[in-house]
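Hey, I'm writing a tutorial for new members on how sequence and structure tokens pair up, and I'd like a real worked example in the thread rather than a made-up one. If someone can provide the structure for the chain below, I'll link this post from the tutorial.
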Amino acid sequence: MKKWIAAAVVVVLVLAAAVWYKAGSAPAVVETPETAATPAPTATPAPTPEPAPAATPVNADSPDYEFDVYVETYKYDNV
């Protein structure tokens, strides 16, 4: 007898879930003055292209230039 009751409960739950799914599980959204005044989203702007890399200086292979680049990078990376 308990198996029949359990089976009936399962059937009722499955039917209730099907009806709930068909009806739409989310409750209806009520339009409030706050949501009505919200402007529609706009299209995202196109990303700006990155600037072309600067020309390599003439002394780029010298140790002094590499040290200067390291110092400048270190200054801004470790703020």
